[in-house]
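in:
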């Protein structure tokens, strides 16, 4: 079994919509703009490594984050915790039996390194059709309950899987030193829980949700970043502000298309809106403010305003 060392926190297929010359994308990182292959963007070695998590970590997740959830959310979170508890139990049982067997230990560690990366790959493969539809300005799938649920899970998983969100939560926990190391080990589980609960909540509100397709024909194309799905009501990179109570999701789909999802409308609706140059700049600035280290565009000039 081969270990997947370079693990992405933004889907490569998603970034393809910003390529030029068929294979490269402009990336702003460390105040430098360079053409890069999407394969080398928004990734980190063993980012999803799960092999060090303990049962105590899961118990603390329940205490800190899950015990105060509403009934339905808590029930769903407990189901997810049960799955991860079984994984930890099986891992520890195998290791106790075969602790001196290097091959078994290696294969087991590889499994726990790859398991979340494989999960994200499956979601990406299932969601390509949604990206293609939106790029063609088609939104019919959003009104179908099954497709709506699948697309919501795509969005919320992308929202929580990033290095940016991980560090934001760890930084918030820094106020409570006893939480930090445990949260680092168990963040894979918590982001899984948060993504599924947010997706479930969005799907339950389908009859009150609007999806607005933003068309951009201005001379300020949409850019994206290593936090490509953002809550426009949130403040990122803050250890002081509480988590936002409102949710309006924004996600650029290509240099000319983006979406805005508001789950607090009076009725279900989809529509199209042509943004102005000023509005395109506003949304690009939101992406820049929410990003961790990387911004992406189809042309170098689109990133130059964000050089320091």
């Amino acid at each position: 079994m081969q270990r997947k060392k370079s693990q992405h926190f933004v889907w490569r297929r998603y970034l393809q919509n910003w390529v030029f010359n068929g294979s490269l994308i402009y990336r702003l990182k460390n105040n430098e703009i360079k053409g890069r292959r999407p394969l080398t963007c928004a990734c980190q070695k063993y980012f999803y490594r799960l092999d060090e998590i303990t049962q105590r970590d899961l118990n603390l997740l329940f205490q800190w984050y899950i015990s105060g959830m509403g009934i339905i959310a808590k029930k769903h979170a407990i189901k997810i915790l049960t799955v991860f508890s079984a994984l930890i139990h099986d891992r520890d049982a195998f290791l106790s039996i075969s602790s001196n067997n290097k091959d078994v230990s290696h294969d087991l560690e590889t499994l726990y390194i790859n398991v979340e990366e494989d999960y994200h790959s499956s979601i990406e493969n299932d969601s390509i059709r949604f990206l293609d539809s939106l790029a063609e300005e088609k939104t019919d799938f959003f009104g179908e309950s099954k497709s709506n649920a699948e697309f919501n899970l795509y969005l919320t998983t992308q929202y929580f899987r990033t290095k940016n969100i991980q560090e934001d939560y760890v930084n918030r926990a820094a106020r409570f030193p006893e939480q930090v190391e445990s949260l680092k080990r168990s963040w894979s589980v918590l982001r899984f829980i948060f993504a599924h609960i947010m997706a479930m909540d969005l799907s339950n509100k389908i009859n009150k949700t609007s999806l607005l397709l933003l068309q951009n024909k201005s001379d300020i194309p949409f850019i994206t970043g290593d936090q490509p799905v953002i809550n426009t009501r949130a403040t990122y990179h803050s250890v002081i502000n509480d988590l936002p109570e409102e949710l309006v999701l924004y996600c650029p789909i290509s240099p000319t298309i983006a979406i805005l999802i508001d789950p607090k409308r009076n009725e279900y609706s989809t529509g199209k809106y042509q943004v102005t140059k000023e509005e395109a700049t506003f949304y690009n600035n939101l992406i820049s403010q929410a990003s961790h280290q990387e911004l992406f565009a189809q042309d170098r000039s689109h990133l130059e305003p964000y050089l320091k």
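note: The chain has a mean pLDDT of 90.
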